[in-house]
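Continuing the batch. This is chain 6 of the set; chains 1 through 5 are on the previous pages. Same settings as before, nothing changed between runs. Recording input and output for traceability.
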Amino acid sequence: MAEGLFDKVYNPDVLSCLANLSNDEVFTPPEIVNAMLDMLPQELFKNPDTTFLDPACKTGVFLREIAKRLIKGLAPQFPDLQERIDHIFHKQLFGIAITELTSLLSRRGLYCSKYPNSEFSVSHFSDAEGNIRYKRINHTWKDGRCIFCGASQKEYERGEELETHAYEFIHTVNAEKIFDMKFDVIIGNPPYQLNDGGNGASARSIYHLFVMQAMKLQPRYLSMIIPARWYTNGKGKGIDEFRDLMLNCNQISNLVDFANSADCFPGVTIAGGVCYFLWERDYKGKCKVINKTTQTETTADRYLGEFNILVRNNIAINIIEKLHLNDTSTFSRQVKPRSYFSIFSTARGTENRTLTDDVILLSSSGKGFYQRQKASDRDNIIDKYKVIITYAMSGGNKPTSEGNYQVISSLQILRPNEVCSETYLILGVYNNEEQAQNLVSYVSTKFFRFLLLQALTSIHITKDSFCFVPIQDYSKPWNDEELYEKYSLTNNEIGYINSIIKPME
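Output for chain 6:
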């Protein structure tokens, strides 16, 4: 009965159907779960003492797929199927649901009943939770924020009828006491962010809190699927510290990267892509980095901490190493900080001049007159030629339907007596138009935009995003062929750049 259930009833797989829905909760497809489980030593599934924890259960798919492997792996030690299932479900599999609803969904996915003390459960428990617990947790407020996750008190101080989204695993200083036991494997897909109570769609990252909390428990193995924004930046307190930890611990043995999130989560768009990794308590060494798309896969053994950000692309690493960059030769040196003129994105110019020394303001709505004294100009660049782009990445850091990127949009030159709002980023400043035009030619190359892309995992382009782009001589224009030859790129490297980067529109 039970073997038939596990072998047959999940075809078609309802969790595969859920994973194809675009939803606020990102459900993990079973095939991705199994790819993550494949990274683990398979002997774990033949050991009756191995314990597993999913600290952020949504559908129960991680525990369900682990159960299927254990049922097969422990057959020699527990010939009786029911005895085997009871042992696995009672002694080896544990979960913490993120909401009351997902607790019911997870229990149904694992126990075949949302109440494991019912007659329909494939393994009987004395209570209605089994080993998948859900406890309503309240945030701990200080100065309007939760001290554990940073949630806004205004946004999340709610009545009993609403979920608090105060996740038990990260809202405690003693996570080891939740089940009062050690775990060999911690695995899952944690919540990624919370609305932080700011304007618009402002949100605060929380996925890193789950990873760091899991590391504190010191399991033998830790695997989670998370946004790739941590490679270079990311919203949320502690992201910089998290990135330093991930890059320099040398305990990550495998990292699987999806620049296009849809290659991992069908129908779901996550700017900057996603990744999953395997962290090993007793490992020190290089990481196998796998770049995956639906068409290609590249693999390289690397130390993640080669740079202060993670360069996601294996081929890009080889190219960057050929540039021989130092602090004085990167394009970041010549880019002005965002909002150089201290003009908010909401500012607009007027149709008519009000003062004789008014400047021309470029905003997202076009050009208009603006009072010169309202524009900050500490480097005296208003009366020079300025090359600018939009602060937001073209396409929102999502590939086109062809799988490539333009990266930059609204590349243009501001003439003397022209300024821009913080919607734009100033890439270079020159006394004559010819040099400005030559910079435009360089920025338009696929070479330039490919290197910029390597430091982008969000929609925002900042001064630091140009850390892998070398400065050139702007007394002449540039094209890709000259740059490929200058830096001795191979045909394979050139072909890859051409496939990833669109021609500049």
